[in-house]
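BUG: 3D viewer hangs when loading the predicted structure for this chain

Environment: internal workstation, default settings.
Expected: structure renders.
Actual: progress bar stalls at 90%.

Input used:
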Amino acid sequence: ALLLRGLPAIKEGFGLGLGGARPPWAGMPWLDRIRGGSSYDAEAALRATKPAFPRERAATVASDWVAPRDQEAGRSSFGEALELRAQGLNVVDLRCGHVIWGRRELTLGGGESYSSTPTRAPKCQPLADFATVSEFSFDPTDATLLARDPRGQLLIAWRPASMRSPDDPEFDPLAHYRLDAPPPPAFHGWTALGVRGALDDGAGWRSLSGVASVRVDDLRLVVDGDQIYTLPLDAEPLEIDQGRSLLAAHGERVIACTPRCVSIDPGLGRPVTAAALLGTAPLRLLVRDGAAYGLVHLDAPREALPEHRLTEILRAQFDRRDRERDELRTEYAAWVSRVMSGVPSEYDEAKLTATREAFAKHRAEHKAEREAAAARAAAAREAFAKQMAEHRAEREAAATSGAAAPP
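C-alpha cells produced before the viewer hung:
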C-alpha cells in the first residue's frame, strides 16, 4: 500500500543471494525494488499475478469465414463474383472494396439483433487485407477501416454517419418520404494515405481487441481509436487501456504511451516481462522482469520516441471524418426540428406507393403463413381426436368381450 501511494518504500530482500553486497539497483533512486534474490519463486509470482494484469486479446484477423446473411447481402448488392473477408461485424469485398457494415444491438428481451448495411465503393479498389479500428463513440454504428492494396499502399475508409429517427411518438413515421428530407450519407470509398506498409498479421499486436497494427518502414504504428502510437518494430505488447494508454516491452526498457510514447529504463537489468500503469501525473509504473518487481515512480531515464509521418496523416483523416459526421448530423437535426415544428412538405409519392405495396405484400404473406399454421394445427387436432376415438372404441370392445384392454 505504501508503494502504490508513492510513499517511502520498505525494501525487502536486498541481501538475499547477494552475500550482503550492495544491490545493483541501489544507485537508481527512481526504482524501488520490491522483491528479489535467488529464493524468489518467479513462476509462483507469475501465476499469482496473472489475473491482475490481463491481456485484452481477441481474434481480429480478417477471416475467410463470412456469415451466410452477409454472403446473401453481398450477392444481392454487389453481384456474384465476390471475395469477401470478415473482421468483427464488418465484411469487405477485397475484389472491389465494397463494404457490408454490421451492427449488433441488445433487444428488450435480453437477446441480440443484427443488421447489415451494404455500401458500394464509388470506384473499384482492389484490396489485399483490412483491419477494423475501434471507435469510442456514442453511436455504435461508427466504424473506421484501414486496408492495404496489392501494391502495399495503405488506405482508409469509414462508415457514413447514420441518421436515426428520434425516439419520439410525435415524430412522423413517414417523414423520410418528404421531399425536403436530407439524402442518405454516401460512402466515399477508400482514401490512399500516400504511405506503403503492411497490416500486422501476426498473433501479437494484431490480436489485441479493437486495435489495428501497421508496419511501416522499420516502425510499428498501433491505432487504438483516435490514439496512434509509434513504437519500435520489435516492441512487444504488455497492457492497453483502450483509447487512453499503452505499455510495451522493448528489451530491458518499457515503453509507456499516455498518449505520447516514451522509452524508460527501469534499471532492472533484465528484459521486462510485465508492467502496469499506476498513474500518469507523474508517470508511475509497476514492472516485472520475471524474477522481481520494481516500482518506477520518480524521474527514471527516458527518451521520447519520434512519431512517424503516417501519424499526422491519420490524424488529419480522423479530423476530416469527424467534421463530415458532425456536419451531416447537424443538418439532420435541423431537419428533424422542422418536422417536429410542423413545417409542411410534399411527399415522394413513388416511394410511398412502393413502401405501401411492399408492406401490403408482407402482410399478405404473413396472413397466409398464419392461415397455413392454423390449418396445420386444426388438422393435427382432428387427427388426434380421431386417434383417441379409435382407442376408446378398442377399449370398449375389449371390455365387452372380456379380453385385456389395450394400453
